[in-house]
Amino acid sequence: MSIKWEGVMPAVTTKFTENDELDLKTFKVNIQAQLDAGVHGIVLGGTLGEASTLTDSEKRTLTRETVAFVKGKVPVLINIAEQSTKEAIHCAKKAEEDGAQGLMLLPPMRYKACDNETVAYFKAIANSTSLPIMIYNNPVDYKIEVTLDMFDELLEACPNIEAVKESTRDITNITRIKNRFGDRLKILTGVDTIALESLIMGADGWVAGLVCAFPKETCAIYELQKAGRIKEAIEINRWFLPLLELDINPKLVQNIKLAEVATGIGTENVRAPRLPLHGEERKHVLKVIEDGLKNRPTLPEYKNL
Questions:
Q1: Residue 22: what are its φ and ψ, rounded to 5°?
Q2: Residue 53 forms part of a structural domain
Q3: Which UniProt keywords are listed (predicted)?
Q4: 137 has which bridge partners?
Q5: What residues does 189 pair with on adjacent strands?
């Protein structure tokens, strides 16, 4: 089983009904929009997917339903964000049983593991599964950094650790990773606001957030820069930036779900303790979305460049 670690991989939102159950109908409307736009993979159960609020049964349902719906067109990955090594290994086993083609791994949750503990955690999970793995490196939000020396140890011990979701916010880290590991460790940028810059500096792909509401624009930026049409990619990115900034916010889930409503491929329903936006905060986000839609660019034909 292998994954081509490149292109746009949406970290999709989880859709809920008014009764706080999985809304698979709306979820599949969004997934179809992603496929139509030309995405290269689907990432389930990340931060944007409200992973911490999902039951084990719901995660398994999302995985099975997505795998069945996508029908092999793109790989389906499931995020693992657990408090114990034992439970993370259990989740990896279930993901494989449910047909996932890959895993995204976060460091241990709640406990701030040291470097040695973090490496041991990742090794134990990787050695328990045949699935290819992308390590999610986000020290800003999760307080644990996976350093290059740690990756050195992981890559030597675990052939199925193949990629990193690079979210340190330090674009120069892309060059450091490339200089150290070449193509052994594929890089997918994980921060929407610096995604284009990261791709130009050598990132192989983009695990994206606002793609959930604007799949075509996101894929256009990726394909244009890949084809060397940087000026056109920059023009779209300049329009996109105020929307992309909705992703680097504690309420990114509510923000992006509001954007999905505006583009007709989602609902606003979130799971408590999250609540829908209200007051001035809601007005601000709606204004950003409204301005974006008002000035939405006409995209060039970006497929098959």
A1: -60, 130
A2: yes
A3: Lyase
A4: 166
A5: 166, 206
What are the CB-based long-range contacts (under 8 Å, 24+) for 190-193? 190/136, 190/138, 190/165, 190/166, 191/167, 191/247, 191/248, 192/244, 192/245, 192/247, 192/248, 193/241, 193/244, 193/245, 193/247, 193/248
Task: Report the CATH number at residue 27.
Answer: 3.20.20.70
Report if residue 2 sits inside a domain: no
Q: State phi, psi for 212 to the nearest 5 degrees.
A: -60, -30
Residue 96 falls inside a structural domain = yes
- Which amino acid type is present at position 23? D
pLDDT of 120 higher than 60: yes
- Provide the residue count of the chain: 305
Q: Could you tell me the residue range of the domain that residue 176 belongs to?
A: 7-216
Number of domains in the chain: 1
Assigned domain for 230 exists: no
For the stretch 239-295, pLDDT in tens is 999 999 999 999 999 999 999 999 999 999 999 999 999 999 999 999 999 999 999
Q: What pLDDT score was predicted for residue 1?
A: 55
Q: Classify residue 228 as exposed, middle or buried by CB count within 10 Å of its CB (0-12, 13-18, 19+).
A: exposed
Q: What is the pLDDT of residues 159-168, one digit of tens each?
A: 999 999 999 9
